[in-house]
Design a protein that fits this description.
Distance between the termini: 41 Å
Largest sheet: none
Shape: elongated
Length: about 150
């Protein structure tokens, strides 16, 4: 039986993730806001069943004639609606933050790449097709967009 070796190209993954993390480190506040928004959105999603249960308990406890049960039901319903709104708004804000993070990274990467290319020797520029260089840089930016 032939033995197959698995080549996971760990060094390629390591260098790509190191490059990406290096660019993430340039925007620590935006990254922490994204993480915080996702964390709070998830917390709102986790608390939703708790207040749904409280709403069911308040409605099931009486026929609606009891003032305490009515107040408990309205409180649970209000908190449930606030949690749903917070989850949606925070999740949307987090995704908008990811879009801004990615756009800033792509802009920086393009500027850095073209800065490096412009420093190459005149011989390199004379012997290289400019369109292929631009295409490679653009494909790298698109790959980063997919990664984020």
């Amino acid at each position: 039986m032939a033995r197959f070796t698995i080549d996971l190209r760990a060094s390629a993954f390591r260098s790509v993730l190191g490059f990406t993390l290096g660019h993430w480190r340039r925007q620590p506040w935006r990254l922490s806001l994204i993480m915080g928004a996702f964390l709070l959105s998830t917390l709102a999603d986790v608390l939703t069943p708790l207040y749904s249960g409280r709403l069911v308990d308040a409605v099931a406890s009486s026929a609606g004639a009891d003032e305490v049960a009515w107040h408990a039901a309205m409180t649970a319903f209000s908190i449930l609606m606030a949690l749903a709104l917070a989850a949606v708004v925070l999740r949307n804000a987090a995704f908008m933050g990811i879009v801004e993070l990615t756009l800033k990274m792509m802009s920086d990467i393009a500027a850095d790449a073209f800065h490096r290319v412009q420093r190459f020797s005149t011989d390199w520029h004379a012997n290289s097709f400019a369109g292929s260089t631009v295409r490679k840089i653009t494909r790298g930016m698109w790959a980063l967009d997919l990664l984020n």
